[in-house]
Amino acid sequence: MAPRTASFKLVLLGESAVGKSSLVLRFVRDEFSDFRESTIAAFLTQTVPLDDSTNIKFEIWDTVGYKSLAPIYFRNANAAVIVYDITQASFDKAKSWVRELQRQADPNIVIMLVGNKSDLKASRKVPRELAEQFAKDEELLFTEASAKTGDGVDGLFMSIAKKLPLAAPKTPGSSGVKVANTPKSEESQRACTC
Amino acid sequence: MDEEYDGTGLTECILSGLLSVDGKKVLHMDRNDYYGGESASLNLTQLYQKFRNTPPPEELQLGRDRDYAVDLIPKFILASGELTKILVHTEVTRYLDFKQIAGSYVYRDGKISKVPSNESEAIRSPLMGLFEKNRARKFFLYLQQWKEDDPATHQGFDANTQTMKELYTKFGLEPGTQDFIGHAMALWFDDDYIERPAKETMERIILYTQSMARYGKSPYIYPLYGLGELPQAFARLSAIYGGTYMLDKKIESINVDESGKFTGVTSDGETVKAKKVIGDPSYFGAGQDPVEGGKVRVLETRKVVRAICILKHPIPGTDNADSAQIIIPQNQVGRKNDIYIASVSAAHSVAGKDVWLAIVSTIVETSVPERELLPGLQLLGTIVDKFVSITPLYEPTSDGSADNIFISKSFDPTSHFDSVVTDVNDLYQRVTGGPLELKKRDTELESS
Is-contact B180 B127, C-beta < 8 A? Predict the structure, then answer.
């Protein structure tokens, strides 16, 4: 039997230049560039096999273009990846995103805190223990990763995949109407790289 | 910067979305700290703050703040209308969930009846007597078969030159039926259409029946979480294609050169240069005294009075519908303009449990606008709380070709978005010099 694909919306949060988009590009395309100026892909999808019967499809929303995030960004988000840079004072901003999610997002959202640029340990400014303790107190998933080397990247998305409540529907409302121009079955094969 | 936008209303957001897709560099600013401008949806706290400057009263027991998304402008989306085409074309449908509006109702002879959505509802409908139903059926059959380029289907009637009045007469329809067809189906809000060539009205009726046929029940769909989702969805589209969004930016000045041509915008002491600016009338002097020697860019055309009502029951006579549109044709209550009621509820994720929202609106005709809403308010039963506003409508004084300042129109009192899309098309043409062409795509719908 072909595995079923469950779709989940994942939002990326964090201060600029902490490597949000780099993490996603490493995950989706296994690419990295030191000199990428700004985000080129704001809506990407990536499907990973969870087990023999289930594939998890992440619909990834990047914050590109938003100086001010819209509520629609958080609407029905199943997972959030909050990124900070271990070499910069970007951890407080990460904390404030956790508060923002607690205020705006669904209470069941799976939150992953990620300390990026783990390859630059020599210039570390945020101790791993500090972030680890914060994640524990707030019941968040936590890891350090490097978009540059790829270290920890796939793993962090897999950890999220394992935590997602598979039974939960992506959108509420059982009597909704679908206004679309592509059948759902096609949509899952089409990775949008716009 | 190619274009700069002021105000994240729906018109501006659709345009910034479309132009970003075209590859234009777009900066979008709003003086408010929320998206949507006049087309925003507010939570309870924001609603009470805006109208009363107080928090929501505890004793009303309205439930959780975050369950609310109260529209300021009551509009629904025609299932086969122009906005649906843009939503599908741009694929912003992937950010939105839609639900049907449960029923469309019309007021006739003191009570409301559902606009029939199928043959069997039509047969049972109390809207017309038996003989009149027969005449109406022939009228609708005529419209169903009518094709502009096939004279054989015209039955000797020239829709381009003959008036709607003549068409009604041809089928011998009663005045009350004319009210029903012209106002509840063609969705005209006054009677000017009767003396004009019939074609535009025929096309509007055909659009209504096609929309009705699409999902059944009513011709309308509505986005879960309120209309405020629409501008946000188009803003998302723009952002994906490189647009930048900034809220809470007070606009200090719209800058022009000696010849009056737009050069940029100053906000918070910073000046952004751009080739063109698009914005809603509130950013171009609406409601303000003209600056001496300054250009008058927008003019007030008329006023709309709206009452946002909170109910703890469905509107009586709607069969406990979770949502409804009610149209009170002007003739039925001795007015020149129709009264519209738009009602939604928790089923659309816009209100707390067991709470219905109903917005009653019409064009102001007298010096006591609120009283003009009475025929509509009386249909609602007990009103828990009510917020009345009188809003002037503005239109730009010029098309923007001379100064590169392109101004949208205020949202009119029609019950759906087709006039908004007309404004979008018009602005797009003026800004880019070419018509907006939506590729034809097959639309698919799933009812689940």
Answer: yes
3-state SS class at B50: helix
Distance CA B184, CA A12 (A): 46
DSSP state for residue B76 in the 8-state scheme: B
Predicted local distance difference test score (pLDDT) of residue B439: 62
Task: Show the beta-strand stretches assigned E in B45-196.
Answer: 70-71, 77-78, 98-100, 104-108, 111-114
User: Position of tokens 């997002």?
Assistant: A105
Residue B236's closest CA among A101, A9, A99, A14? A9
Q: Where are the domains of chain A?
A: 4-177
Q: Given an 8 Å threshold on Cβ–Cβ distance, is B236 in contact with A70?
A: yes
Considering only CB atoms, A65 lies closest to which of B97, B245, B441, namely: B245
Taking a C-beta distance cutoff of 8 angstroms, is the pair B130, B174 a contact? Answer: no
In A, minimum Cα distance to B91 occurs at A180
Contacts of A43 in chain B (CB under 8 A): 240
Q: State the smallest CA–CA distance between residue A42 and chain B in angstroms.
A: 5
What token pair was written down for B196?
């004009």
Determine the 3-state secondary structure of A189 from DSSP.
coil
Determine whether the interchain pair B215/A178 forms a contact, defined as Cβ–Cβ distance below 8 Å: no
Q: What is the 3-state secondary structure (H, E, C) of B191-242?
A: CHHHHCECHHHHHHHHHHHHHHHHHCCCCEEEECCCCCHHHHHHHHHHHHCC
Mean of pLDDT values over B157-162 = 96
Enumerate residues 6+ apart whose C-beta is below 8 A from B420.
B10, B11, B14, B75, B83, B411
Q: Taking the CA of residue B316 as centre, how many other CA atoms within 13 Å lie in the half-sphere pointing to its CB?
A: 9
CB B215 within 8 Å of CB B101: no
Check A174 against B224: CB less than 8 A apart.
Answer: no
Output the pLDDT for position A167. Answer: 58
Question: Which tens digit of pLDDT belongs to each residue from B63-89?
Answer: 988 899 999 998 999 999 999 999 998
Q: What is the pLDDT of residues B99-132, one digit of tens each?
A: 999 999 999 888 999 998 887 888 888 888 999 9
Average pLDDT, chain A: 81
| Residue that the structure tokens 């709003």 belong to | B30
Residue A93 and residue A113: Cα distance in Å, rounded? 12
A183 with B444: Cβ contact below 8 A: yes
pLDDT tens, residue by residue, A149-190: 999 999 999 999 999 876 554 544 445 787 765 443 333 333
For B221, which of A71, A171, A177 is closest by C-beta distance?
A177
What is the biggest distance separating any 2 CA atoms in chain A, rounded to whole angstroms? 55
User: Max Cα separation, chain B?
Assistant: 70
Minimum CA–CA partner of A103 in chain B: B66
Per DSSP, the three-state class of A75 is coil
CATH class of A4-177: alpha beta
CA distance B344 to B359: 9
The tokens of A16 are what? 């600029």
Question: Letter for the amino acid at B211?
Answer: S
Which of the residue ranges A64-68, B211-215, B310-314 has the most confident prediction, judged by mean pLDDT? B310-314
User: In this model, does residue A194 exceed pLDDT 50?
Assistant: no
B-chain residues within 8 Å CB-CB of A64? Answer: 239-240
Q: For residue B55, how many other CB atoms are within 10 A of its CB?
A: 11
